[in-house]
Amino acid sequence: MISxxxxxxxxxxxxxxxxxxxxxxxxxxxxxxxALLFDQRVLDILLIALNGFGALIGTLALIFALxxxxxxxxxxxxxxxxxxxxxxxxxxxxxxxxxx
Length: 100
Description:
The chain has helices spanning 5-11, 14-37, 41-72, 74-98. It is an all-alpha fold. The protein has one domain. The longest helix has 32 residues, at 41-72. The radius of gyration is 15 Å and the shape is elongated. It starts with a helix and ends with a helix.
């Protein structure tokens, strides 16, 4: 099903971007801190899986925002930047968790 323009515009509002960015970014930051301070194999595996899912969602949202940039301009580019940073954070967390 193709989303309507109003649904797309609602997904790109600054409030929605803040909440999504905070949620995804917080997970990545907490995982990075954990990877630097602690070493527990079972929790590492769970965090790798969780960050892998976060990276997948961030990548899909990044692609969605880049495709929407033609129609929605600056708001979509801001969304792409937010989701790109979150995806990079998740990938960094995975690398740090795997290094141990």
